[in-house]
Write a structure and sequence with these properties.
With 667 residues, the protein is of the alpha/beta class. The chain folds into three domains: 2-102, Chitobiase, domain 2; 108-464, TIM Barrel, CATH 3.20.20; 510-531 and 570-655, Alpha-d-glucuronidase, C-terminal Domain (Alpha-Beta Complex). The chain is 34% helix and 14% strand. The chain contains 19 helices and 22 strands. The strands form six sheets. An eight-stranded parallel barrel has the order 7-10-11-12-13-14-15-18. A six-stranded mixed β-sheet has the order 1-2-4-3-6-5. Helix 5 links the parallel strand 10 (158-160) and strand 11. It is globular. Residues 122-123, 164-165, 243, 289, 332, 360 line the site of alpha-D-glucopyranuronic acid.
Length: 667
Amino acid sequence: MITAGSSHDQVVVLGTAAAFGHYCSSSINSTSVGASDLVPDGYLWQFSSPDTSSPTLLLGQNERGTLYGAFAYILELAQGNDPIKSASNTTTIASGATRHVSNPAAPVWWVNQWDNLDGSIERGYGGRSLFFAGGKVVADLRRAAAYARILASVGINAVVVNNVNADAALVHTPANIEGLGRIADAFRPFGVRIGVSLNFAAPQSVGGLQTYDPLDASVVAFWDDVTAQLYKRIPDLAGFLVKGDSEGQPGPRKYGRSLAAGANLFARALRKHSSAAADSPGILMYRAFVYDQLQESNWKADRANAAVSYFAPLDGQFDDNVVVQVKYGPIDFQVREPASPLFGHLQKTNAAIELQVTQEYLGQQCHLVYLPPLWRTVLDFDMGKTSGKASLVRDIVTGTHFSRPLGGSAGVVNAGTSDTWLGSHMSQANLYAYGRMAWDPSGGDDDNDAATPRHIIEAWTRLTFGGSPAVVDTIADMALASWPAYENYTGNLGMQTLTDILYTHFGPNPASQDGNGWGQWTRADKNGMGMDRTVRNGTGFAGQYVGAEVAARFESVDTTPQDLLLWFHHVPYTQPLPGPRPGENTTVIQHIYDAHYAGAETAASFVTRWAALNARNALNVDAERYASIARKLAFQAGHALVWRDAVCAFFDGLSGIADRHGRVGHH
Ligand code: GCU
C-alpha cells in the first residue's frame, strides 16, 4: 500500500480493498469500503466528507483494479478535473463520504497484435514489431514494457502478441517459449497478461505428427504439452487465439470436425492449468471470421452468410472457457456494415466483439478517421427481441443479455516501433477510445455520459494537447466529422469501402471489388449496383437476423436505412432517394457524386481548421507534432480528391449518367 500527499487533507491511500481492510481497519472504518461492490479488476474512489480528515481512498478489487483506478484518477487530474466532480455513478455512503465505483463490463477486454516472427506486422502502420525480429523474440523489451504501460493506462487486461495467421514455430522451440516468457515478464508489472495465437496445423508442420485432427489422441497430447510448457514459464497466461479454416489457414474442417471440436481442443488444454496466478482459467478466443476466399460469384453466393452458417448450428457446443470472437460486421472491417447477425445466434456461447484500431480499410493512419461513432453503430445495434427483450450487441458481448459467464472485446491494434506507436498522432485517440469503450461499452445513449464518442475525444485531446477550449472543440469537431467524411469519399450508401481489395486495402479501386473470390462484391454494372441480400430474391442474408422485425426491415428497400441501402439491395442508379434537404429528391447515382464531393470538402476543411489553431497559438503542441499532423491532414485532403475523382469517374463511366451539377462526366 502506498500513501502520498503533502498535507493530511490531500492524502490518497492506494491499494487493494483487501490490503486496506487488513492494514487500516483500526484507523479508518474498513466496513465502509464497499469491496463487495467490486468485480475482479474493478476499483473504487472514496472521498471523505469535507468535515472529516479521512484520506481519499483508491482501492482495487485486486492489484490490477488498483492500477486501473490509479490511472483513471491520474487521467482526471491531468485534464485539470477534480475527480470527485467528474466521477459518474457516485453514491453517498453512511459516513457522508462519496463513493465512485467502476467495474469492467466484461472479463475480456483484450488487444490483438498481428505481429510476425520476422518483425513485420500484418496490417500494421506503426513500424516494426515491438516483440519479434529475425524469427525470435527481441532481446530488448523496454519499448514493449512501455506499450504495456500504455495499455494499462487505457484499461486493457491482455494482449495477444502474434498474428492470427500464426507461425507454428512460435510455440515450438524452447527459445521462443522463453522469449514469450520474457514478454509476459515485461507486461506483468502493468497487469497486462499475454495470449498467443496458434496455428492449427502445428502438430503436423512442426510437431512431426501425421495429422492435426483435433480428435486424434496424439494431437491432443501435442497441444497439452505446448500448453504445459507455456504455463510453466507463464503461470498467468491469458489464453490462446485461433483462426482456423479461413483465408487458407488450416483448421478442423479438413478432418470433417466441427469448429466447436477445434475450439474445445485448445480450451481443454488450457483448463488443465487454472492457477492462482492466472486468477481464472485460460480463455480460448476462437475467431468467427471463417469463410472461403475462393468463392465463385453467383447471385445467391454471399461471403456475409458464412459466419452464421458455420457457427449458429454449433451454439451450445463450445466449452465454457471458449469465447467466439466476432468481427463487428459480416464482411471485414468496412467503413459501414450492419452488425454481424451472429451476435444474435450465440445464446449459449460466450461472444466477444472484434474491433480494429489499426485503420486497415480506413486510411491506414494516413487519414484521420475517429472510429468510436462507427463502433457505436454496432454496439448499439438491436438484434431484435430475444428472451422477450431488446438484444443490443453491447449487452450480448458483455454476457449480460444471454447470461454468459464470459465475453467482451478484442481490438486489433498493431502498435509498433514508430514514435507514435500506431503511425500517426491522431490515431492514438482510437486506442484510447477502444480502452474506454471496452471497459464500458454502454455509453452511447446519454449525451452527458463520459463514454460518448464526443466526451472520449475531448478527454483525449485535453490529455494530449492541453485544455484550451478552442483546441478541444476543434479537434473534437474534426474527429467526429471524420468517419462520415471518409464514408462519403470512399463508399457511401453501404456499398463498402471501394478500396483495393486484392492487395493493399489502401486507396480507391472500385473495379477490384467484383469478379474475384474474395466476396466483397458490389455487383456494379451499367444499370445499377448493390448486393441483393434479401430472402425473397437474393442471398438470404437479411433473414439471418434472429429478430423477425430486423430481418423484415432489411428485406425491404423502403425500410432499409439509407446508409445500408446497397448493402442489402441491388437497385438501379436512377433509384429515387430523399435529397439532403426536406422536399428534395435525388437518385442513387447523384448521391454517390454528391457524397464524394461533400466528403472531400470536409477533408479539405481539416487542413484549414488545424492551421487556424496554430495561427491563434492555441495549441499546446510542439512544432514537430504540429507539422506531422498538418502533413497527414494535407495528404488526406489530397487523397480524398483522388478518391472522389476515381470513384465518380468509375460510376460515371459505368452508368453513363452525368452529374446533375456538371462536375463529373461529359455526356
Ligand atoms: C483481413 C486482413 C487480413 C487478416 C484477416 C483476418 O482480411 O486483410 O490481413 O488476416 O482480415 O482478420 O484474419
